[in-house]
Amino acid sequence: xxxxxxxxxxxxxxxxxxxxxxxxxxxxxxxxxxxxxxxxxxxxxxxxxxxxxxxxxxxxxxxxxxxxxxxxxxxxxxxxxxxxxxxxxxxxxxxxxxxxxxxxxxxxxxxxxxxxxxxx
Length: 120
Hints:
Order of helices and strands: HHH
Mean pLDDT: 86
Strand content: under 5%
Helix content: over 70%
Structural class: mainly alpha
Low-confidence stretches: none
Shape: rod-shaped
Distance between the termini: 37 Å
């Protein structure tokens, strides 16, 4: 079974290369993944730093402002996660769409051949 999967994978790579699609470059989806990861890291680290800084405070007004700031960094982390997930899902769906296109094209060719044999 592994050889069948490997053969199909190699055939898919050849078909994609024949179409002129370059899946190795980092386009907008690659940039989206990098930006998403960066936002997640910056948001998490900044929220932790704000938490550490708030441990020394005793005034409730200062604590409330640090809580709001920390909540903002949590929002940045969540936005980064959403951007990252959107970029990854976009890549998977584009490869799936190419595979569907290639399979439907092969199916249409098989149907055309079968109809041509029946006409003879």
